[in-house]
Amino acid sequence: MLSTGLLKSNSLYAQAARNAAGAAARPVAASDRVRIGVIGPGSRGKELIRQMLRVPGVEIAAVADVYEPRFAQVNELVGKTVPSYKDHRQMLERKDLDAIVIASPPFFHAQHVIDSIKSGLPVYGEKIMGFSQEDNYNIADLVAKTGQIYQVGHQMRYAPWFQESVRRIHQGEIGEPTHIYAYWFRRDNWRRTVPNPSLEHLLNWRLYRESSGGLLEELGSHQIDVANWIFGEHAQTVLGTTSIVLYHDGRTVGDNVQAVLGYSKGRRMVFSSLTDNAIMGDQLWIYGTKGSVQLTVEDATFYGEHRKTITAASHSNAVQRGLKTGASYQVDEEMPYRGPGDRIDGSKDEDPTLTACRSFVQCVRTKTQPFADVHVGFGAAMPCTIGKNAVFEGVMKDVPQMKTDAV
Ligand SMILES: NC(=O)c1ccc[n+]([C@@H]2O[C@H](COP(=O)([O-])OP(=O)(O)OC[C@H]3O[C@@H](n4cnc5c(N)ncnc54)[C@H](O)[C@@H]3O)[C@@H](O)[C@H]2O)c1
Prior knowledge:
By secondary structure, the protein is an alpha/beta fold. It has helices at residues 3-10, 13-24, 43-52, 69-78, 88-92, 109-118, 133-146, 160-170, 200-203, 214-231, 312-318, 331-334, 352-366, 374-393, and strands spanning 34-39, 58-64, 84-85, 99-102, 123-125, 150-152, 177-185, 237-243, 256-262, 268-274, 282-288, 292-296, 299-303, 319-320, 323-324, 342-345, 396-398. The longest helix is centred in the last third of the chain and has 20 residues, at 374-393.
């Protein structure tokens, strides 16, 4: 159902690279200036401002936030007083904006994205695309109807070592990828210090179900996006479970999550997140019929799974006087492969968020659709939108699919 859109997205590898390179070129003519308004310049929003300011020709022209302390922080970051608004709709009335960056909490994304697009402006919208099933459909429908530029904040699509790995996987280097195990382990209780109890839900929105899909949505969505990219389709089912092991502090989302997403032909993606142990960090293992890939935030390693070299000692344990001793497993077949891998080093590459910003700016200038488009946003969002309930209820649910391929 989604293949057209996904293939279209995949064919945009080269375009994403060209866009990023184009936006890096100097000098920039006055007519190429891109004036950006930012909705929700909190933690991520300020990082996006910092990265956008590294793109030649970009100006942060206005910001909107319901929390006033953000304005002084933005002024300090930008180095001048940026016009500020407590209501994003007033900011959208300005006639001098070329694009909007949205980094508000997820349950406001649909409202902010839809208002911005209806104002005629391209949008860089942070993940997760929509907080509810209806939000995802409403954004997808509006983008399809208007043809407006909408780029979602799944920046790993712009990481060269991710792009190269996916290209090699699609070329068959590890055979058919059948399973993806994604880990996001950290030591972090997610709680922010609140200066006044009335600000608890505004600042700690991640901890409550009414405003957050928890670890699946906040962390898993990035890895689900990579699984969609590799499998070339969106997940069809999701089941999951969560609990609170450590942080019994009034939060209503879990501090660990395990989810299993189903794709066609029985393929599976397994997501596991812990917040009390960081050993696995943020990584995906892609298991194929002929090999495996470990994909991390700084590199990718391909393992061809050659047969283990059998040592005389281990073999003689299994066979004596010409007879097998009945061992149910053979060391040479069952031991994990421990040979060297073929590593792609991404640690020297530019921050993928900067590349994503450059690419977005170039899409605005050239009026072209981004690589991380609405298909990407929808495909990562819907399993989380549905999956968070599967996780909270400990059940399996079907994931609704996109209605249209018209974008
Ligand atoms: N792509 C990534 O790697 C990445 C990383 C971190 C966060 N994020 C995403 O960015 C978004 C923001 O996360 P954060 O950690 O910056 O949260 P945050 O709480 O630090 O920032 C959110 C900002 O939005 C403001 N806000 C809340 N309601 C608003 C409204 N109605 N109108 C305008 N502003 C409003 C808040 O006051 C705050 O300044 C989330 O969707 C999160 O998932 C993405």
